[in-house]
# Entry
Amino acid sequence: MSLIVIASPSNQTIKDLVRLKDRRGERAEHSFVVEGRREIQRAMASNFIMEDFFYCPQELDASGRLLVDSVSSPRRAEVSKEAFAKIATREGFDGLVAVFSQKKNAFSDIENNAATAPIFVVVVEDVEKPGNLGAVLRTADGAGAHGVVVLGKAVDVWNANVIRSSLGGVFSMPVVHAEGPEFFKWCKQQGVKLLGAALSSESKSIYDADLRGPLAVLFGCEATGLSKATMSQLDESAIIPMNGLCDSLNISVAAGVFMYEALRQRTSIQSRK
# Structure
């Protein structure tokens, strides 16, 4: 384990870290930046491999100092307050940043996560806003989903804002990037019902839908919803009843309603066994 000391904000290591945080450069293809003690600890708890560890002594609290003492990253850097401000994204940063290796999840990871329970996955297609994707991951973790599938040109799951808004859910939740045909084939093989969130004349209320068996709930782009190609693959669609002027909810809020209704139904089944 090596330790370097960085004082200048113009240090090349700091510049390289900023590029990685912004998801630029070759290293972004296999590594990502995590800021903050809570998220770093959650990545470690989920067995992500740490590559680099940066800390600013002036900004550490007692919990941060304990983490610094416990981390055994192969490369560590003690960073001045001025240099750390260049790499920090958050206001009121806690003086801790780490670089981790990405994990490449597959559908088998979702199957293993489900074990003997009926598969329950959340699917997002062409989601553009990092905060929305992060919130979906956070809720999926809380609602007991077995994985999240990302279709289309969705935002990079290792974006700093995704990680922050997921509160570490991105680490505990298997996230699989897939093309539509590959995903639909897997669902057919596993007997997974495809339920889309869609404003359609054929859509039923989410509270009238049966969410108890193997299930994938699908959510589309914030502006246009699910693509026509994906809509054509659905077994059924559902809506959230709206009683006011607005006809839809933010995707992260809508996903939360769908997921927790699924959790309610699935928990009810388990409690009767």
About this structure: Residues 2-101 form a domain with the 60s Ribosomal Protein L30; Chain: A; fold (CATH 3.30.1330.30).
